Structure formats: structure tokens, C-alpha cells
Structure to design on (235 residues):
């Protein structure tokens, strides 16, 4: 077991492999050539790195014609990376004061974490749901959905079954690396982010996993949860 742990830690420690993994945190599959550019390595070196990540069960690969597309092996890999980032230097303290009048970093405000919503917006939504007792915090690192919460999600267009609500991993806590508090992960977190995109409250920022809150989204988040939009990060 100790050997397996140290081997995984070694895979994560290389800067090129770390950059590749971070690029895949948005849940999108990317080709080897693009990952080589992201890792700032030659294609042959990238191929070696990707093979190691595949053997270490951190990545999976999909063949489409002559191309191979790589993605994170599972949501658990994304959660582990997010947790490791949260153990590092405090992002907000490191950037505080450097440019006090600069707009907030879009990635820190709202981003996709594999398939769910992370960043300050994601944490604010969880705080609002907890304050209204639509979610309840349960250990270990789980949320429980109340009856009122089920009704709230139904109004949003997310119908939940009794079976889903009883699953222990359906609504998970994921430690946000920029906020150092929990956002909503698990299947419910994925359903919520997907619904926000369908409703056009959130839109992707090209070539990044940052998310932009639309004008419609700003109004809806305020109406539903009394969240004030961050205009510097939105459009």
C-alpha cells in the first residue's frame, strides 16, 4: 500500500504531468499533441508521460480514428487533485495585495472541477443551500438533501428520486482549492452544473475551465439564492 501511494505521488510530482492533469480538470478529453504543448515537452516525451499516467490509473484514453484523446480516469482523480491544491499555499493570500484593483481571476470565481461547479460561486451556492436547509452537512464529506431541497431542485428542473437521495456519494463535499471550503460534487453537483449551462446562466470561457456568469445568470442566482454577481468575472 505504501508503495502504491508513493508511486502515485511520484506521478503527480513531475511539472509536465501536473500541467497535463490540470488541463484535464475541466472534464474535456484532449489529444496528445495539445497536452504536449501544455506540458511544454516534445511529443515523444509527452507520450512517455501519458503512458505512465495511464498505467497509474490517473488517465483513460479514447481512440477516435487516428487520434487518441485523454481524460481523467474518474471524478475521484479530480477530487484528489483539487484536495492536493488546497493543501498548497493559500492562493488568495498569495495574490492579495499584488494588484488590489485588478479584476478577480475568472478561474477563482467560477470554474468546472471535472463535472461540477467550483470556485467562489460554487462555495456561495453551497453556503446558501445550507443556510436555507435545502442541504444538510453529513459526515464523512457528504451532503444530505432535505425534502425542501428536493422541491427546490425540482423547480430548477432537476428531478430527484428517493433512490438517488439515499445514495451516500450522490451529493459529495469537494474541498475547493481557492476558497478552502466545500463546493458540491458527486452526481448532484454534475446535474446542477449541467442544468446551469442548459439554462445559459453559465458559459465556458474559451480554452480554459473558467466559467462566465451571464447577465441572465446574475439575475437568476440573485432571485433564487440572493447571490450578488461579481461583475469583474462575469459578462
Amino acid at each position: 500500500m505504501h508503495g502504491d501511494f508513493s508511486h502515485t505521488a511520484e506521478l503527480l510530482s513531475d511539472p509536465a504531468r501536473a500541467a497535463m492533469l490540470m488541463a484535464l480538470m475541466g472534464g474535456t478529453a484532449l489529444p496528445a499533441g495539445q497536452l504536449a504543448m501544455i506540458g511544454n515537452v516534445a511529443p515523444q516525451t509527452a507520450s512517455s508521460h501519458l503512458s505512465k499516467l495511464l498505467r497509474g490509473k490517473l488517465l483513460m484514453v479514447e481512440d477516435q480514428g487516428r487520434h487518441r484523446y485523454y481524460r481523467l480516469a474518474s471524478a475521484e482523480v479530480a477530487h484528489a487533485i483539487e484536495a492536493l491544491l488546497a493543501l498548497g499555499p493559500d492562493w488568495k493570500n498569495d495574490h492579495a495585495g499584488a494588484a488590489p484593483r485588478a479584476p478577480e481571476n475568472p478561474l477563482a470565481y467560477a470554474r468546472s472541477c471535472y463535472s461540477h461547479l467550483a470556485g467562489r460561486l460554487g462555495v456561495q451556492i453551497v453556503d446558501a443551500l445550507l443556510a436555507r436547509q435545502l442541504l444538510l452537512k453529513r459526515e464523512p464529506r457528504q451532503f444530505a438533501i432535505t425534502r425542501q431541497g428536493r422541491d427546490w431542485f425540482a423547480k430548477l428542473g432537476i428531478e430527484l428520486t428517493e433512490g438517488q437521495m439515499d445514495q451516500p456519494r450522490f451529493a459529495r463535499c469537494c474541498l475547493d482549492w481557492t476558497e478552502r471550503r466545500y463546493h458540491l460534487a458527486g452526481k448532484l453537483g454534475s446535474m446542477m452544473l449541467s442544468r446551469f449551462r442548459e439554462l445559459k446562466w453559465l458559459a465556458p470561457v474559451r480554452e480554459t475551465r473558467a466559467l462566465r456568469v451571464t447577465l441572465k445568470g446574475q439575475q437568476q442566482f440573485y432571485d433564487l439564492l440572493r447571490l450578488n454577481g461579481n461583475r469583474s468575472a462575469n459578462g
User: Anything to note?
Assistant: The chain has two domains: 2-73, 82-225.
